[in-house]
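REQUEST FORM: STRUCTURE PREDICTION
Request ID: SP-0412
Submitted by: Lab K.M.
Chain count: 1
Length (residues): 147
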Amino acid sequence: MRLSTRGRYGTRALLELALHQGEGPVLLRDIARKQEISLSYLEHLITPLIAAGLVASTRGPKGGVMLAKPAEEIRLNEIIYLLDGPIAPVECVNSKKACARSEKCAPRDIWQELRKAMNDILSSITLKDLASRQIAKEEFEGTMYYI
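STATUS: Completed
RESULT:
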């Protein structure tokens, strides 16, 4: 299963907000530049994130967007579900009606296990966890060893 661009870019935008949580609103153009996302695409992604209460928007000279709740309260499965819909490697996992063979299909059992494993991983990781990983990667990149 592949995550859509919406899910991947939305996660990166929220990661950027988590990295700046507590610093006030961040301009969308700054997020777009830093995360290498088209500004117009980012503007479309932010709307459902605001509507869902994950992002708050403020207007004015010091306006921008910021996380509407603490990064440790936002889980990756929530972001992906919001932007991509239910996670499933195949359609029949979320809807038995998608295939007449659903009830008697052994591979479907495996696809359901795969969906559960993906959901378990995504629900175990918060934006705060992701931000910590990002900070560690950036610190490692900046480390130079000389002999």
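NOTES: Residues 57 and 65 are 4 Å apart (CA to CA).
Reviewed by: T.R.
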